[in-house]
Amino acid sequence: MAVKNSQRFAEIERLMGDYFGCHLAPVMGRVQRDLSNRQADEMRAYSNSTAGILRSLATANMPGDDPYATLRITGEWNSKTTEDYLAMCKEAIVGNKDMQRDLAVMAEEWRKAVVTEIGRERYDALSKQLGCDLAYAYIEHCMEQLMIEKAGERPYAQILCRLYHPQGGTEQSVRSALRIEQVTACRRDRSQRRGSL
C-alpha cells in the first residue's frame, strides 16, 4: 500500500530530528559532562585511598596492567555502562515537563498522519496489539535511535570508550559498545502515563 501523504511524514521526521538536535542533544552533553566529572572525582579519591595506592604499587612494574581495573568494576560512577549512560540521558529527558509536552505534541501529529493513512480502527488495533499507543512508542523509538547515533559521535564517543562493559569484562570499542539490544518501546503502559515518552 502506497503512502498517500509522504510529505507530512517527512515533515514530522524533520521536526523530530531538529528538535532532538536543539533540545535533547544538549541534555546528553550535560549528562556526559556530569558523568565524566563524577568519574574523575571517583578516580581521584581512589588514587588517594589506601586501596588505590596499594594497587598502583602492585601494578607499577607490570606494563599494560590498569591500576583502575578494580574501580571500573566496583566504582559507583566508573562502572557505568553505555546502557547506564543512555538511561541517565532518558531519565533527564523524562524529568523535563516541557520536553514531555513537546514530544507528546509530535506524537499527536504523527498519530493524526497515521490515522489519515490507515484509519482510526486499524490504528487502535495496532496499538492494542503493541500494548501501548503506537504514536508514543514510535516517538520513543525514534528518539532512542537518535540518542544511540549521537552517542557514537565525538565528544560523546570519548565517554563511551571509558565505560565498562561487563559482557567482556574489559573496555570495548565504541562501535561494539553501541550494538545495544533494542529495548521494547512499550515497557510501560502509556495509557497511564500519556505525557511520558
Explain this structure:
The longest helix is centred in the first third of the chain and has 43 residues, at 6-48. The protein is mainly alpha-helical and 197 residues long. The protein starts with 5 loop residues before the first helix and ends in a 20-residue tail after the last helix. Helix 1 (6-48) crosses helix 2, helix 1 (6-48) crosses helix 7 and helix 5 (97-118) packs across helix 6. It has helices at 6-48, 50-59, 69-74, 82-94, 97-118, 120-130, 134-151, 156-162, 174-177. Residues 167-197 have low confidence and may be disordered.
Set down the secondary structure blueprint.
Elements: H1 6-48, H2 50-59, H3 69-74, H4 82-94, H5 97-118, H6 120-130, H7 134-151, H8 156-162, H9 174-177
Helix pairs in contact: 1-2, 1-4, 1-5, 1-7, 5-6, 5-7
Short structural description:
With about 200 residues, the protein is mainly α.
Question: What kind of sheet is the major sheet?
Answer: none
The first-to-last residue Cα distance is: 29 Å
Give the C-alpha Rg.
21 Å
Helix content: 55-70%
Taking all residues together, what is the mean pLDDT? 80
Choose one word for the global shape. Answer: elongated
H and E string:
HHHHHHHHH
Name the structural class.
mainly alpha
Helix count, per DSSP? Answer: 9
